[in-house]
């Protein structure tokens, strides 16, 4: 006999990057496994698989769950409102929202969308289980007694006490994954001892590090490899090199398994040569968040290291043959031509050391210190969250317009791409010329006038046409009839 589904968890994967497979995000995989441990019947769907309103309605009716849970990142919020509306039309069951955006904008969500009934803040496992106990098993706890909730009651918004963080992560069952994909995110810890002003990780999972035992992580790695030996691992922990002993043990485990590719985030700090050797042996690709070449901007982000620290750190790893990828954000609060030039110069030094560079646009996500403290030098110029993805520039600073920020970012991307090691002969020659005159190119960039910025923007960013770009399916994949009803959705905040 077909089991009744207690909760349907929805991953509203709207902006699908070209190569990103359609499998549920890790948060949903954790929630599913946790609820199953308590014998609840769960189903998850990734919205990219149901790309029309009719299909979604028919799937909802077929599954016929008793509750709906929707995970939500900031750019997804307007779509989440739409999904909530469709689910209410189709089923009229309680709709619960959780995840990064709801954790910080719970009241806005309840005010803006009457179809979302309850918001779960921060870590969701225990809170969601208690919600199911309440709705499905009719256990006595009233909603007011469940920690970590915000909900509507008789027209008023009620907020319950904060949920304590899960102490022993080994108690959590392994996330329920889709093993048909060759790429898995995995986490050994929750929390972060740093407090970068643009970050939400330390806010959701706290400032205190909570580690799984290496044995527990090893068992999970082995169970994944047993099901798919080709799996690549992307460790999403804040900075695994905070704890030398833990990282060393983890490296030993990784070295002893034949893993195709492993990526980890590190912070910039002195590492001893033995640890570096272990990292090399485990073939780990190291990601670091440098964010800016300007000391002043970095300090305002609470990132207190020098450019020389970044270069020393990369030198040490690169000399041992470890691949390093350094991430930068362009258009940070207080960004001006001078800070951009400092960033360009640092990138130049890193490229000489064959460090891979990843460039992102800064976005002041709700809940971050930069969002909360309006004394930072920036002004949001596009308040439509749907646009807050990828390379989009949604702010301006007192010295640079969004158009200028976008075109500097694109110019840097172009130069950076050309400076890569090309195999084809004409590109190789061009790349060598640019490598020879990098300062010339970069400095020229700052003397170019508004006409140049307009042209670059017209070609590369096309901000007003982003939805059209998505529809072209060449770059993006959209869902639910390309959200044809988006015009009617309000994104007030
Ligand atoms: C891994 C990752 C990715 C991977 C996702 C791979 C995958 N399928 O899992 C990739 C690279 C694809 C990615 C893409 C993007 N990402 Co990303 N990503 C992350 C990262 C590093 C980890 C997320 C994670 O797995 N966390 C671990 C889980 C366990 O925690 P969690 O998600 O918070 O879930 C818990 C709670 O939130 C809650 N919860 C979550 N969902 C729900 C639902 C319900 C119903 C309930 C009750 C509770 C609940 O319970 C969970 C368990 O405790 C975070 C940064 C970070 N360190 O958090 C950024 C982060 C989530 N990403 C972010 C962004 C912006 C994006 C993109 C939009 C970027 C872009 N392209 O422009 C895209 C969106 C892609 C998409 N369509 O989904 C932002 C979100 C900011 C925001 N305010 O929403 C973050 C926070 C990074 C940042 N910039 O600060 N990302
Ligand atoms: S180190 Fe990373 S996870 Fe920690 S606060 Fe900074 S950006 Fe966030």
Write the layout of secondary structure elements.
Layout: E1 7-11, H1 26-37, E2 42-46, H2 53-63, E3 67-71, H3 77-90, E4 95-98, H4 100-112, E5 118-120, H5 125-135, E6 149-153, E7 156-159, E8 183-186, E9 189-190, H6 201-204, E10 210-211, H7 214-227, E11 232-235, H8 244-256, E12 262-266, H9 273-281, E13 284-291, H10 295-300, H11 307-319, E14 324-330, H12 337-352, E15 356-361, H13 369-372, E16 379-380, E17 395-396, H14 402-419, H15 425-436, H16 438-445, H17 450-461, H18 466-471
Parallel strand pairs: 1-2, 1-3, 3-4, 4-5, 8-11, 11-12, 12-13, 13-14, 14-15
Antiparallel strand pairs: 5-6, 6-7, 9-10, 16-17
Helix pairs in contact: 1-5, 8-9, 12-16, 14-17
Which sheet architecture does the biggest sheet show?
7 strands, mixed
Shape: globular
Bound molecules: cobalamin, iron/sulfur cluster
Give the integer mean of the pLDDT values. 86
The CATH superfamily title of the largest domain:
tm_1862 like domain
Q: Which CATH architecture of the largest domain is right?
A: Alpha-Beta Horseshoe
CATH class identity of the largest domain: Alpha Beta
State the helical fraction: 25-40%
Number of domains: 2
Q: Low-confidence stretches at least 5 residues in length (pLDDT < 50)?
A: 463-493
Q: What's the tally of helices? A: 18
The chain-level structural class is alpha/beta
Number of strands: 17
> Per DSSP, what share of the residues sits in E-state strands of 2 or more residues?
5-15%
How far from one another are the termini? 46 Å
Q: Using only CA atoms, what is the Rg?
A: 24 Å
Lateral arrangement of strands in the main beta sheet: 2-1-3-4-5-6-7
What is the third-level CATH name, the topology of the largest domain?
A: pyruvate-formate lyase- activating enzyme
